[in-house]
Amino acid sequence: MNIILFGPPGAGKGTQATKVVKKFNLHKVSTGDLLREEIKNNTDLGNKIKSIMDRGSLISDNIINDLITKVISNKKFYNRLIFDGYPRNLKQGKNLDSQIKKYKQKISCVLSLNVDKESIIKRISGRQICVNCGLIFNEYYYPASSKNHSCDPKFLNKRSDDNKKTIINRFETYLNKTLPILDFYKEQNLFHQINGMAKIDQIFDEIYGIIASLET
Ligand SMILES: [Zn+2]
Fold this sequence. Notes:
It is built from eight helices and eight strands, in the order βαβαααβαβαβββαβα. The chain has 216 residues and is α/β, with parallel strands linked by helices. The protein has a five-stranded parallel beta sheet with strand order 2-3-1-4-8, with helices on both faces. A three-stranded antiparallel beta sheet has the order 6-5-7. Helix 1 crosses helix 8, helix 2 packs across helix 3 and helix 6 (117-125) packs across helix 7. The radius of gyration is 19 Å and the shape is globular. The mean pLDDT is 91. It binds zinc ion (ZN). Residues 130, 132-133, 135, 149, 151, 155 line the site of zinc ion. Zinc ion binds next to loops.
C-alpha cells in the first residue's frame, strides 16, 4: 500500500509518518531527505541542487518530481511508500498520479492532519529548547516546571517573533497550494480527515485504524 500524509508545517506529520513506517514496514518519502541524500552522494544532480540551495532559490518541481520517480521506480519499495510533505502542489500531484500508474502501483489512502492556524502558531512559536540539557518544552502545551525540568529557566530558548510571520506564511501557502490536490483525492474516495489537534498517540490510533482496515 502507498499512503500520502498531508498536513500544514508543524502539524506533526513527520512524527506520525515515522510511527506508521515502523508499524506497517513502509518506506518514508520526504523531499527534504531526498534532496539531502542526493547532495550527500555527490551526484551531478546533487551538485546542481546544492548550488540552487546555496543561492537561496527554490528547487523546481521538475527536480523534485525526478527524485520522486526514482523512489517509485525502485522495486525495493514497491507498493510500500508513505509520502510525507509530497505532493505540495497540483503539478506535483499530477506527477505522482502518473508515476504511480506507470509503475503499476496505487495510492491506498490519503490522510490529512487538520490543525487550525492558532494551534500551529502556538505549537511552533511556543516551542522552547533548553540550551543546557536539550529538553524540548512548549509554553502553551507542555511548559517547563520544577517537575519536568531541573535547569535554571534562563536556559530556555525561544524563537523570535519574526518566525511567527514565517509560520503564518507557510501555513497559508499550504492552504492555497494543497487544497486543490485534496479535492483531487476526495473525488477518488481515498481521503480521510484526521483531527491533528488530538494527542500524538490518539492521532496515531486513528491513523492505525484507517490503515489496518485497508489491509484486510
Ligand atoms: Zn535543561
